[in-house]
Design goal:
Strand content: 35-45%
Number of strands: 7
Structural class: alpha+beta
Radius of gyration: 20 Å
CATH class: Alpha Beta
Shape: elongated
Helix content: 25-40%
CATH architecture: 2-Layer Sandwich
């Protein structure tokens, strides 16, 4: 392999390395809520009376997202999947920082009884970035643990086992 063919990959690698990926870069207003890393899924086992009512579970899930001031980007009733648009209003950052979150829900069928539901999976993805003069200085991906907990508790109270 020639030196010339290595220049582009090395330049790309150096550019990627210049973007910090450390939790210590998280600004103070987000330190207690933003977790750097892969977003997690939390699961809510559904109440017995909701397991055989996919329509009611679907409507409750959609209503809960809308009640939490999120807009729906994608939803597929047949697969039980809902994803919101990115919301930048959960925590408004000052200066050169931007923070946005997105919710994903998945109604999971019971493997033993295909026409009934088993659980609801919940995920809250977050992205945090600092840009200066049009260049991204810091980009962090993770999840918002406070929004995830609040949404989880809301859905748990409406659909989950008591």
């Amino acid at each position: 392999m020639s030196t010339r063919s290595l220049i582009a990959p090395i330049a790309c690698l150096l550019a990627l390395m210049s973007v910090h990926l450390f939790a210590s870069d998280v600004p103070k207003p987000l330190k207690s809520r933003f977790i750097v890393g892969d977003p997690i899924w939390r699961e809510i086992p559904l109440r017995t009376n909701f397991r055989a009512q996919p329509e009611k579970c679907w409507q409750t899930a959609v209503s809960t997202i809308l009640d939490n001031n999120f807009d729906i980007a994608t939803m597929d009733k047949d697969s039980g999947y809902i994803r919101t648009t990115w919301n930048e209003g959960v925590v408004v950052m000052g200066g050169h920082w931007a923070y946005k979150v997105q919710i994903s829900l998945k109604l999971v069928p019971d493997p033993a009884a295909p026409k009934t539901l088993d659980k609801l999976r919940v995920q809250v993805t977050g992205e945090l970035a600092e840009a200066n003069h049009g260049r991204i200085r810091v980009f962090l991906r993770g999840y918002d643990q406070i929004l995830l907990q609040n949404l989880f508790q809301d859905l748990q109270a409406k659909l989950g086992l008591q």
